[in-house]
C-alpha cells in the first residue's frame, strides 16, 4: 500500500476549525442516515459566521 505525505507550510499563524462525522457511502447515497449534509449545515450556521 502506497502512502502519500503532504507537507503544509503556513507562514502566518492560522486557526483551523472543523467538524467530523463517521458515515458510509451507502448511507450518504441512499439518503437514509446521511450525515454529511447536516455537517455542512452545522458548519455554516455555527462556525463560518464567526
UniProtKB/TrEMBL annotation:
InterPro entries associated with the record: Reg_factor_effector_dom_sf
Q: Note the superkingdom of the native organism.
A: Bacteria
Query: What name is this protein filed under?
Result: Uncharacterized protein
The scientific name of the source species is Pseudoalteromonas lipolytica
Amino acid at each position: 500500500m502506497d502512502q502519500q505525505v503532504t507537507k503544509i507550510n503556513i507562514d502566518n499563524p492560522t486557526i483551523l476549525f472543523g467538524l467530523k462525522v463517521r458515515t458510509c457511502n451507502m448511507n450518504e447515497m441512499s439518503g437514509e442516515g446521511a450525515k454529511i449534509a447536516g455537517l455542512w449545515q452545522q458548519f455554516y450556521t455555527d462556525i463560518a459566521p464567526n
